[in-house]
Amino acid sequence: MHIDHVHFYIKDAPRSRDWFVKAMNFQDRGWWRSRHTQTGWVSSGPVNLLLSSPLTPESPWFDFARSHPPGVMDLAFRVDDLEGAIDRAIAAGAQVLEPARQSRDDRGGLKWARVAGWGSLSHTLVERRGRTEGRFPQLGELNVDRDRVASAFAKPVQRSQENRVEDGDGEDPLNLLGIDHVVLNVKSGELEAACDYYQKSFGFERQQSFTIRTGRSGLYSQVLVHPGGQIELPINEPTSDNSQIQEFLECNGGSGIQHIALRTDRLVETIARWRRRGVSFIDVPATYYAGLARRCPVELSEETWGAIAAQGILVDWQDEASDALLLQTFTQPIFDRPTFFFEAIERYRGALGFGEGNFQALFEAIERAQIERSRPG
Questions:
Q1: What is the CATH number of domain 2-163?
Q2: Superfamily (CATH H level) for 178-374
């Protein structure tokens, strides 16, 4: 099982699509409008994001939009056997929100169903055979072939020239390597039940767990991985009422996807480009880098360490004998509430883990931003 695509609820889909293209250097791949929903599709390498704005109460995403701010409403899983995946979910007590459907043309076939996740999150299960690029279940039987779009359920919307945002602004696309992991926040006391649900319904397995505490707040985290693919799903719950996880839950209207980690093999270049384009990142204090090069078991040039510090990148390693490094940093929340954000990550020489050595520094950085938001004025 792999991540097929991520579907966001967005208040203004055209505006958000242009932000992804201009700020994060994603490519504009398609744009559709039906009577009830308008949707944009952006991508970077194998990362596919759908950005939908409900237009009427008949939109399949209207209920989510009524209860939550912009964010991830569906995390789609690609499966090899749709019927088997549905049977497993039903046997575990999962609710099927949309029954199995399929479409086929001379390029290939697509089968899908949508199953309830935790809270308001859903998971579209997608089985693909042949060439099905540009076909997404929530948009109906949609076919995209370069600039030509044909669909019985949706039609392309042509953007006016003055509103067009160029994909690269003279720069080549970044072409991310993929989604490294996705983090789900749940309410206090729900961590065990949520992990159990994903184990039984989708076949995830438990990996490591973490506890992070500061003088002010904290969290519990359990990492889930899927043995039949590349999906890693850490699940967090708050340990106090003033935890940043609790702030997310209150601002999000309940459980939901906190962040998505985008993987690259050129993190310094990627962050520098995103900063030039206006993306905001967490602040890492200069004290974090004091003595870091001396403690690190991997020898890097002084220039490289300077670039890492200049871009606010956190560095972690598994043990003193390791020659691998995990490099990561985090954007500020990308919407108007302190909810969803992105992580950018590089696994230099195949580094494993999630940056456990950085958890405390990361938690404290996000906590500082939380305190700043709470100050008047």
A1: 3.10.180.10
A2: 2,3-Dihydroxybiphenyl 1,2-Dioxygenase, domain 1 (3.10.180.10)
User: How many Cα atoms within 13 Å fall on the side-chain side of residue 103?
Assistant: 18
In this model, does residue 21 exceed pLDDT 70? Answer: yes
Query: What is the residue extent of each domain of the chain?
Result: 2-163, 178-374
Annotate 289-319 with DSSP letters as a single string.
Answer: GTTHHHH-SS---HHHHHHHHHTT-EEE-S-
**Known binder of ligand: residue 5?**
no
pLDDT, average across residues 247-252:
96
pTM reported for the whole predicted model: 0.89
Q: Please determine, for residue 162, whether its predicted confidence score (pLDDT) is greater than 70.
A: no
Q: CA-CA distance, 195 to 204, in Å (whole number)?
A: 8
DSSP assignment letter at 149:
E
Nearest to residue 61, comparing CAs of 294, 70, 46? 70
Residue located via tokens 């409008």: 33
Give the number of residues written for the chain: 377
Q: Would the annotation count 58 as a binding residue?
A: no
State the residue for tokens 């850490």: 234
Q: Is 259 marked as a binding-site residue?
A: yes
Common-topology check for domains 2-163 and 178-374:
yes
Distance CA 95, CA 115 (A): 6
